[in-house]
């Protein structure tokens, strides 16, 4: 029998596992994305509950236990998947919060569904939270949960962490639901953001858009009820030691060597690992590489590239579009530059076990992380953790990770000419330079790992002032 009240409740759009069909049966599989990577290791060993969607529309499966956690599926109807998840979350908020790389769409029906589903999450959290419990709400899909939960349970501590960027007010103000979302967030005691700029963007939005309704002083916002909410940067991280240990196991090391052998033992191996999302800059990266293969600054026989593109949000048009562009470009590069059985680009559009991801990280001489905008990008940190002092990281200035991994080869992915030069620099740098850079970045991710992040978030939440 499970407990029915918890001192720590996590609310995230998805559970750490997803219900998927395998042949004619349904099985649970690890959910995609950085949120799950991070929170899975944080929650291991903590006696908490996690509420989230199971990944399929219709009735919610019964609660169940996994890795010391009690998982409580939340039901979403087919219409809610369309309107709350695909519509408001990923058709309005996602592009708006990522620098409008594609134009956001605003529909009143989507906004209504978002509010309804946020209420459902708040009710579930209110039911599961013990007296004075801590409820940790995650990400842009649940921005109204803090307010709805506060109305139901004034006794609980409410924290919210945004895994993605928070946009500048000039963009945020496009959102018709902007006031409801700001008031939604102000129901929390503490709001955590990836970068200082994100926290400042939020504070500025409150000051500029809510006017007399709130008072903003430093990093505190007081709303009309006198309740105070603090906003600050708490950058997320990875289970650094876990990844480092996994990467150094004989099995992973052998698999890394095998991957290189299967690719014909190239002199240099480049790697990209992303959800297939238009924010990740995969198209820009491929354009740079295509030009380099064409001009001969990369030799297709000696330098190979693996692109892992994890399937994501496949029913949305913008995602179908980026997939077809990426696949056409990969086809064109391979068509022009392959020899028999030896294409320069290996394109993998599926999920892999963690060991296989670690083996790819170990195998790669240079990791290409070139998003146009990314809250953090955990892949960059995983690559650093998987290497002792070998390897090189090319990293977009538009990721949260760039604030911390300053010894990477930083690039502006929009500037194709300079990105090409940066890739060449990373490939040709003297071993000593690469070692120095990797060692410094490794120290950073070892010191600031995911447990450190969670402890910082929870202690900031615990001491956040409720009254001015
Ligand atoms: P996002 O949250 O936007 O997807 P992150 O880089 O922050 O991006 O996190 C992605 C996480 O998903 C990382 O832990 C990465 O190792 C993992 N991942 C990405 N692609 C795959 C894949 N094809 N199979 C398994 N894990 C993957
Ligand atoms: O980090 C951003 C994020 O939206 C997370 O919420 C989630 O872990 C990941 O990307 C995957 O997205 P989705 O849940 O839409 O498949």
Structure report:
By secondary structure, this protein is of the alpha/beta class. It is built from 17 helices and 18 strands. The strands form 3 sheets. A 10-stranded mixed beta sheet has the order 5-6-4-1-7-8-9-12-11-10, sandwiched between helices. A 6-stranded parallel beta sheet has the order 15-14-13-16-17-18, sandwiched between helices. The chain has a two-stranded antiparallel ribbon with strand order 2-3. It is globular, with a radius of gyration of 22 Å. The structure holds adenosine-5'-diphosphate and 6-O-phosphono-beta-D-fructofuranose. The site of adenosine-5'-diphosphate (ADP) has 15 residues, from helix 1, strand 13, strand 14 and helix 13.
